[in-house]
Amino acid sequence: MCRQILFDNEIFFEGYRAIRQNPDCANLLTEKPALFSMLGEIRGKRILDLGCGYGENCLAFEEMGALAVTGVDISEKMLAVARQENPGKEIRYIHMPMENIRSFRPNEFDVVVSSLAIHYVEDFEALARDIFSLLSPKGIFLFSQEHPLTTAPEKGVRWLQNADGKEEGYVVTDYARPGRRSIHWMIDGVVKYHRTFSDLVNGLCAAGFCIEEMREPLPPKEAFGRIPSLEKEKHKPNFLLIKAQKP
Ligand SMILES: C[S@@+](CC[C@H](N)C(=O)[O-])C[C@H]1O[C@@H](n2cnc3c(N)ncnc32)[C@H](O)[C@@H]1O
User: Fold this and answer.
1) C-alpha 166 to ligand 1 mean position (Å)
2) Cα–Cα distances in angstroms (integers) from residue 170 to residues 22, 47, 132, in the given order
3) Which one of 43, 76, 135, 198 is least enclosed by Cβ atoms within 10 Å?
4) 131-171, pLDDT tens digit by residue?
């Protein structure tokens, strides 16, 4: 499955929509609260959201007082939802791969955010360089992605389970073999890119960024009692978030 059509694939699109409509999905329980808590003050700022999907975050940025919000996504279907469900006076949605953001002007944005989309991009170093050049001085790049321990395995069993089927540990394989992964997630051939922690940190530093904060968030405490399957995240968190600043 080539990257251009993944979220436009009907089966994948409908399956992903169903996941996101669950109020207990990992995005709502864990990823978004962490992302927004790391964001900082965005009042009066110009925001670029890479892989904006349904545009939920773009609308939230506008409501938080952003001066202008640009949402970029490679999927027509995701953007159709964004335009219909999350329009805003200060929001523009643009259909383009984030690999093409060099078409924006240098210093055009104060904050670049990306929620769970960067692991679909092959060349992180090039992307980090492009983002650096679009940001104003002191500008922020904040992104979340699948945890590197999640993207690592090429194949095989991921969880060690006890006799009751409870996850007792996570099997890490192929960690030090960065690159393309083709997995089954609702459909065959979903392509993502595995990067080690050092690939990510060094990619940001090589572009010129200073790293401000990293998080590997867990769901809120109340959720562990309600949803026993979350216990396994204590062995391996689902997400990695990094906040970097242009000096
Ligand atoms: C998991 S969804 C997350 C959507 C949104 N950021 C959110 O958190 O609700 C990933 C999004 O990234 C988009 N995407 C994947 N690869 C992309 C690329 N190379 N350029 C732009 N968007 C991309 C997909 O179309 C999809 O909308």
Assistant:
1) 32
2) 25, 37, 35
3) 43
4) 999 999 999 999 999 999 999 999 888 999 999 889 999 99
